[in-house]
Amino acid sequence: GADVNRDVEDAQGVRESAFLKACRREPVPHTPVWFMRQAGRSLPEYKKVREGIPMLESCMRPELVTEITLQPVRRHGVDAAIYFSDIVVPLKAIGIDLDIKPGVGPVVENPIRTRADLAQLRDLTPEDVSYVTEAIGLLTAELGAIPLIGFAGAPFTLASYLVEGGPSRNHEHTKALMYGDPQLWADLLDRLPEITAAFLKVQIEAGASAVQLFDSWVGALAPADYRRSVLPASRKVFDAVAGYGVPRIHFGVGTGELLGLMGEAGADVVGVDWRVPLDEAARRVGPGKALQGNLDPAVLFASTEAVEEKTREVLDAAAGLEGHVFNLGHGVLPTTDPDALTRLVDYVHTQTAR
Ligand code: 1CP
């Protein structure tokens, strides 16, 4: 189990990687860099291998997952790989009728809006996602000293897809349930942490060296509602994987007002979008946690000089942090020039070399 994998990790030098050191708030040889959504999307080699294969099916093919996960590592020289999957994969694995529609995103056939709809949810077992264990075995063998990040969707963001039935701008059905039927909301958010935690455990036991919990859309909530109706569920996920000792990263978009609470939920590393400078984010999060972020992904469409200037601002704001993992403030945008990402990795590495 996990102990064996930790030994393999040590032998390969993963534990001493700049990425894991930064997560642990230890001194680093350079600021580590990876990008949310670095696999897929902008890469021509990704589009080529994905041709004709539906998204969810591609997540279930270990060789393909391995290739797609490795592509940005080879091309950009990033300091960590992120497992290629999607936040709705564990929901599909327990039998929820859903699909990922090209150009749309996850679409759920029978949205959860009533107590009877909860019957769609059951616990996730490792056998439900045996392809994940297999793919991570292949991956860690290829990655050597480069750490692999596992991930899952946080309870609120998963609930949003389940309740809305698909992508949503205002999350109105989700909020209607949260405010209008608090008991049903509580029961829904009581079930999701078990599924999410089980999915993260599978990834860690197979060899993932860190995990990121994406609460992409939780920035839609006011702090008091987050604290009351969401934080306890997210905390259950973090608590469930605490024993492994792998860094736990927590990220959401537009979460400037929630950063302190997201740290309180149990994160070791708090991800920050581009709206809050990292020095200010550090004040909001408080001591004892590393930060991850936070270049605006749209900046990559500007000139190289402008990218460097905006990156310099991020690095300057990060100068006094206990630990900093450089990333974008959200995922790589699909039409980003891949060469701009490669140049950005080099720039951060040379600017921060110690
Ligand atoms: O680096 C990577 O691309 C790794 C793989 C990855 C990750 C980390 C995918 C593949 N999805 C995710 C996470 C994910 N999925 C999040 C959290 C990160 C974020 O905020 O961007 C979210 C919210 C989703 C849900 C989702 N899946 C969307 C967003 C829809 C919306 O509400 O606006 C979309 C478009 C998908 C589909 C998807 N997931 C991944 C890919 C490559 C795709 C595109 C589908 C395809 O290629 O057919």
Automatic annotation (TrEMBL):
GO molecular function: uroporphyrinogen decarboxylase activity
Pfam families attached to this UniProt entry: URO-D (PF01208)
One example of a Gene Ontology biological process annotation: protoporphyrinogen IX biosynthetic process
CDD domains: URO-D (cd00717)
Annotated keywords: Cytoplasm, Decarboxylase, Lyase, Porphyrin biosynthesis
Amino acids binding substrate: 37-41, 86, 161, 216, 330
EC number(s) from the headed UniProt entry: 4.1.1.37
Gene3D superfamilies: 3.20.20.210
Pathway named in the protein's UniProt entry: Porphyrin-containing compound metabolism; protoporphyrin-IX biosynthesis; coproporphyrinogen-III from 5-aminolevulinate: step 4/4
Catalytically driven reaction(s): uroporphyrinogen III + 4 H(+) = coproporphyrinogen III + 4 CO2
Residue ranges occupied by any Uroporphyrinogen decarboxylase (URO-D) domain in the UniProt entry: 32-41, 149-165
Annotated site location: Transition state stabilizer: 86
Entry GO terms, CC: cytosol
PROSITE patterns: UROD_1, UROD_2
Subcellular location: Cytoplasm
InterPro entries documented for this protein: UROD/MetE-like_sf, Uroporphyrinogen_deCO2ase_HemE, Uroporphyrinogen_deCOase
Subunit structure: Homodimer.
Protein family per UniProt: Belongs to the uroporphyrinogen decarboxylase family.
Physiological role: Catalyzes the decarboxylation of four acetate groups of uroporphyrinogen-III to yield coproporphyrinogen-III.
Entry-linked NCBIfam families: hemE
Protein name: Uroporphyrinogen decarboxylase
Organism this protein belongs to: Streptomyces jeddahensis
Lineage summary: Bacteria, Bacillati, Actinomycetota, Actinomycetes, Kitasatosporales
